[in-house]
Amino acid sequence: MLNKSLLALFFCLMADVVFGQINPAGPIVAIGDIHGDYDNFKKVLIDSGLINRRGNWIAGNTRFVQLGDLPDRGPDTEKIIVQMQKLQRQAIKDGGEVFALIGNHEAMNIYGDLRYVHPGEYKALKGKNSRRLRSRYYDAEVTRLSAADDTFVADSRFKDQWLQSHPLGFVEHRIAWSPDGKFGSWVVTNKAIVKVGRSLFVHGGVSPKLLGMSIDDINSQVRRELKGDLPEEPGLSEAQDGPLWYRGLASGDEQLEASHVDDVLAAFDVDKIVLGHTPGLGTIVPRFGGKVLIIDTGISKYYGSHLASLRIEEGNYFTIQNGEKILLPNTDSAMLSYFKHMAEVKPTQALLNRLEELKP
């Protein structure tokens, strides 16, 4: 029989486990928009300590949040998604967790808004049956157009234009991004908004319209819409004030939006709101006294290869960039010093402009 001292020690140890003293929640790492650039994505993952050079998870019980917009602008979306799926599997085995959020570009690809698809995306999906698949798709399109308009004629000019806008791999791309396809089916299992620790993560932002909704409500509605249950008016996944698109917290006037920021923090019981979607200064941008962090630094080559991540540990928030770990500011004086330092390391015109605005 255990004596009282051993029992007391046992229960103390159990209490420590339950309340997170022996195995506390690890750090949180967040990375913004990737836009089809696998090489830069991998570099940021390595720089942030999440993976080794072979692409395997080495971060233990770290929680990793990627804020969406994996596709478009660059050619490597398939490689990026495969890497994310791999990390989701590996992190769980190691006590960590990976959250892949839904961005507006994921939604656009599912809905067929292909304005920003890089030609390399189609090329990456092209296979031995691509010509046959495209031919069948063309025939179906001609049948559809003919049924809708009895004056329609599929002449050689129409066909040439159609083939130009539907390269080989186009049909495979549409299949892959369908809600049942290899990309779309993964996206619809992900979340639009998530609370990790004391921070709220969302791709675009939280508009006043969302304040009466819970995190589960928002995620469920976005998921239903992406699966095809679209309302007559633009829903959360399409509307400019939805979580995938809203920019008010990223670019709205801070004095006018200050009370709304406080309402969001209170509604979701968090200390910070972390956003992607709005690139700007080439580094992480704190707003509203550090209550809002914009972490779309422009990682892809398309936006200048500004490789940075957010790291949260022991209640502190850091930028990991250019080999440095820099504490993020939450006062005006510290904000000036922060932006000045980042401009000295890798200046952008937008960053220099911001410095001028902050100078007393």
List the main descriptive attributes of the protein structure presented here.
about 350 residues; Purple Acid Phosphatase, chain A, domain 2; 2 domains; six-stranded mixed sheet; about 15% strand
Kindly name the structural category: alpha/beta
Determine Rg (CA atoms, Å).
23 Å
Total number of helical segments?
14
The structural domain count equals 2
Query: What's the arrangement of strands in the largest beta sheet?
Result: 3-2-1-9-10-11
Tell me how many strands there are: 11
Task: Summarize the amount of helix as a percent range.
Answer: 40-55%
**Biggest β-sheet strands, sense, barrel:** 6 strands, mixed
**What is the succession of H and E elements?**
HEHEHEHHHHHHEEHHHEEEEEEHH
CATH topology of the largest domain: Purple Acid Phosphatase, chain A, domain 2
Q: Name the beta content range.
A: 5-15%
Q: Oligomerization state of this entry?
A: single chain
How does this model look, in words?
- The protein has 360 residues and is of the alpha/beta class.
- The chain folds into two domains: 25-119 and 175-358, Purple Acid Phosphatase, chain A, domain 2; 127-168, no CATH class.
- The protein is 42% helix and 13% strand.
- A six-stranded mixed β-sheet has the order 3-2-1-9-10-11. Strands 4-5-6-8-7 form a five-stranded mixed β-sheet.
- Strand 4 and strand 5 (199-202) form a beta hairpin.
- The longest helix has 19 residues, at 130-148.
- It is globular, with a radius of gyration of 23 Å.
- The N and C termini lie far apart (72 Å).
